[in-house]
Write a sequence for this structure.
């Protein structure tokens, strides 16, 4: 029951936070590996290019306007099916494991510091298991949310028509391993984010429960704890969220480009497949790993690059944390009331 309640709570929250998730994804991919003065570096060939286009996603308000202008209201809910499926799959496992650990008092230490450390450990472990299960859905969600047209397009543009089309197409082309491409990125992201979210949420709930106003309502306590939890989650997770988005959105080289590469191996990859960042075998060249993505982003874009999309990410994480954990606590209260 704990697993089902966790998934349902996250799905309810995901519907309201998805527009900010779309904006966050677009901001994280815009100007990828481009220096703030407009110069860009291409690791595969060492070539440079310039970009003078105005950033349509320079702020949350401008992002809303750009998406509404180019894609209409439905553009703000792009990737909703895969986003909700990801939330249910990941959080049913994540929150279910964490609640089981709390029920068994495995998160309780002999001191407050010990309790915090155990909560962080169980939060991270539950996040790793949950993200492992839901990894393909997160990849599809990212690729669908990034898709647009003209000057509004960012990153590599995958041509998925639906979540099912994306999953079957990736499996047909790259096999089961293709569905978990970029897995290290989401594991790192979710382990850190889950540790910060669940540990701070539990600690704040225990702290607030000492006050009369918090003991009067489960919803108010959960809301206050979620506000604090959402902030810390965003601060610690944002750089790894950028990395996960970029790892998942890397493209694959078409067969024609791979043939040309075999004929003349000195042809720059960026010339054959602009913007895809792949080698002759379709493996990621732009980013080979989490560490590689981190260092290249930091070198080209500075610390600002690792915190791209921070504002919409907070407006996504904070309401999502509030709604997710508030729904979760409320569902558990109803379960205890009606099912004992």
């Amino acid at each position: 029951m704990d697993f089902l309640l966790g998934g349902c709570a996250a799905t309810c929250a995901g519907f309201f936070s998805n527009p900010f998730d779309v904006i966050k994804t677009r901001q994280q991919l815009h100007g990828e590996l481009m220096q703030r003065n407009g110069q860009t570096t291409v690791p595969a060939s060492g070539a440079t290019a310039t970009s003078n286009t105005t950033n349509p996603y320079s702020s949350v308000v401008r992002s809303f306007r750009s998406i509404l202008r180019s894609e209409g209201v439905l553009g703000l809910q792009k990737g909703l099916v895969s986003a909700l499926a990801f939330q249910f799959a990941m959080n049913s496992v994540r929150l279910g494991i964490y609640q089981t650990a709390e029920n068994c008092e495995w998160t309780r230490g002999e001191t407050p510091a010990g309790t915090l450390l155990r909560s962080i450990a169980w939060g991270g472990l539950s996040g790793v298991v949950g993200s492992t299960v839901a990894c393909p859905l997160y990849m599809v969600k990212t690729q669908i949310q990034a898709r647009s047209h003209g000057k509004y397009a960012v990153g590599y543009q995958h041509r998925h028509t639906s979540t099912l089309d994306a999953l079957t197409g990736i499996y047909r082309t790259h096999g089961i391993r293709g569905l978990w491409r970029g897995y290290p990125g989401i594991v790192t992201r979710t382990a850190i984010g889950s540790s910060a979210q669940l540990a701070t949420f539990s600690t704040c709930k225990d702290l607030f429960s000492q006050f009369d106003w918090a003991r009067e309502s489960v919803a108010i306590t959960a809301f206050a704890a979620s506000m604090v939890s959402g902030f810390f989650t965003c601060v610690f997770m944002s750089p790894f969220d950028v990395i996960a988005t970029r790892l998942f959105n890397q493209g694959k080289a078409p067969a024609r480009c791979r043939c040309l590469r075999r004929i003349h191996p000195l042809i720059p990859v960026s010339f054959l497949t602009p913007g895809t960042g792949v080698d002759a075998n379709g493996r990621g060249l732009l980013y080979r790993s989490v560490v590689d993505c981190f260092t290249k982003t930091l070198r080209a874009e500075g610390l600002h690059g690792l915190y791209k999309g921070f504002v919409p990410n907070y407006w996504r994480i904070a309401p999502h944390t509030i709604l997710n954990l508030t729904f979760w606590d409320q569902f558990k209260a109803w379960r205890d009331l009606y099912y004992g």
Observations:
- The radius of gyration is 21 Å.
- Residues 112-146 form the longest helix (35 residues).
- The chain has twelve helices and two strands.
- The chain has one domain: 1-33+60-253+275-339.
